[in-house]
């Protein structure tokens, strides 16, 4: 694909497809500062830190740095929001480079999804992988009657409505496993669009809005599949997990493939310790009581390259150290000693999600810029 001769920009989805293709005739050039790039980047991109030079009008200096780039490659410039990269492309074209910028920058990269359908005898788990943000959401439906539940949907609700329409599903539940801190929930908007109820544990949200609490239920009704609702606090006090036919375990941020979910967001030190103890109980009393062949489906991923993002419990126990720690004090210390830095804007995002407010898309995308950091380690 030679995009630059025809237009000055490419969409994030086009970049995703180019990275997946065998096309090696382009360079994905990230011009953000090194610390920004190191924190969060597109796999396969290279970093040439130029933002500060561009922002201060240092045109000659920027062009001099561009001269280190190969002239036989198409250059796709990337910045945080697709602004400075437009200036970069103007300068690159002045130097006769074949150059375009990625629309909306890393903010736009967060819109990209991959989708995987995991077949079980009586039901299907469809995993939506938000590749830039590391978020995972799900549609589970019965093969008997196409009745469905949607778990942890993002603000890009068209991903789910398109799938529902294409597969003629009857959505009975739109569910948040917990109140999220690193990204906005699309569950309320999606439930309105689909004409169904929004479900969440009332412990995790304000009481001033209309929702269906899950605290009075112990299962969901989906065709002839058995979907148990399990109370699994730790990441949040109201975190819930869902066990489908004793074969699939949708667990929110209770457990990522890399680590249990962090217990500290929106909590002080004492509350974090208490949250870690609840996390320990959930792991010991729920997770480790599951069968080894149960497939684990988390709500996030950080570093894993496994696709779809799932492992059996047996496989997970072999690589997730926290699941091997039997002593509560050792577990709590392991979880709380080296917790990563907090997600960007998590306090504001958490408050809006607790209030179940549908925020404008541009505002939501701005606050969501950056990687997820929901793992404890």
Keywords:
six-stranded mixed sheet; Metallo-beta-lactamase, Chain A; about 20% strand; 2 domains; about 375 residues; 13 helices; Oxidized Rhodanese, domain 1; alpha/beta; 18 strands; seven-stranded mixed sheet
How would you characterize this protein structure?
This protein has helices spanning 12-20, 34-39, 51-55, 59-66, 84-94, 105-109, 158-166, 187-194, 269-285, 313-319, 328-337, 346-354, 361-368, and strands at 9-10, 26-30, 46-47, 74-78, 99-102, 113-119, 123-130, 135-142, 147-151, 170-175, 198-200, 212-213, 219-222, 225-231, 240-244, 248-250, 295-297, 311-312. By secondary structure, the chain is α/β, with parallel strands linked by helices. The protein has two domains: 9-108, Oxidized Rhodanese, domain 1 (3-Layer(aba) Sandwich); 111-368, Ribonuclease Z/Hydroxyacylglutathione hydrolase-like (Metallo-beta-lactamase, Chain A), CATH 3.60.15. Strand 13 (219-222) and strand 14 form a beta hairpin. Helix 9 (269-285) packs across helix 11.
Number of strands: 18
Strand order of the largest sheet: 6-7-8-9-10-11-12
First and last CA, distance: 40 Å
Q: What characterizes the major β-sheet?
A: 7 strands, mixed
Which topology of the largest domain does CATH recognise? Metallo-beta-lactamase, Chain A
């Amino acid at each position: 694909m030679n995009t630059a001769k025809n237009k000055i920009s490419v969409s994030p989805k086009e970049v995703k497809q180019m990275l997946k293709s065998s096309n090696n005739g382009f360079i994905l050039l990230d011009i953000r500062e090194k610390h920004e790039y190191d924190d969060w980047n597109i796999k396969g991109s290279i970093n040439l830190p130029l933002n500060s030079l561009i922002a201060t009008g240092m045109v000659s200096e920027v062009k001099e740095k561009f001269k280190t780039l190969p002239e036989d490659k198409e250059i796709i410039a990337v910045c945080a929001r697709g602004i400075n990269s437009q200036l970069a492309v103007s300068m690159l074209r002045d130097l006769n480079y074949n150059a375009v910028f990625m629309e909306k920058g890393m903010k736009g990269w967060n819109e990209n999804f991959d989708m995987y359908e995991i077949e079980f005898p009586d039901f299907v788990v469809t995993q939506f992988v938000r590749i830039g943000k590391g978020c995972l959401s799900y549609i589970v439906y019965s093969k008997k009657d196409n009745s469905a539940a949607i778990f942890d949907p993002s603000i890009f609700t068209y991903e789910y409505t398109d799938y529902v329409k294409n597969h003629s599903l009857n959505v009975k539940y739109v569910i948040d496993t917990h109140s999220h801190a690193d990204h906005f929930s699309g569950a309320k908007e999606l439930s309105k669009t689909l004409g169904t109820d929004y479900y969440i544990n009332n412990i995790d949200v304000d009481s001033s809005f209309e929702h269906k609490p899950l605290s009075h239920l112990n299962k969901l009704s989906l065709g002839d599949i058995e979907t148990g609702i399990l109370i699994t606090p730790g990441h949040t006090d109201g975190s819930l997990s869902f066990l489908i036919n004793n074969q699939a375990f949708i667990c929110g941020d209770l457990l990522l493939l890399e680590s249990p979910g962090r217990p500290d967001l929106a909590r002080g030190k004492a509350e974090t310790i208490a949250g870690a103890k609840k996390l320990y109980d959930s792991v010991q009393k729920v997770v480790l009581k599951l069968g080894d062949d149960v497939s684990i489906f988390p709500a996030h991923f950080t570093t894993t390259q496994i696709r779809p993002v799932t492992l059996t419990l047996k496989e997970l126990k072999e690589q997730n150290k926290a699941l091997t720690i039997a002593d509560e004090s050792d577990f709590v210390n392991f979880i709380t000693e080296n917790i990563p830095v907090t997600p960007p804007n998590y306090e504001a995002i958490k408050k809006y999600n607790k209030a179940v407010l549908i925020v404008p898309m541009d505002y939501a995308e701005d606050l969501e810029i950056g990687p997820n950091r929901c793992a404890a380690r």
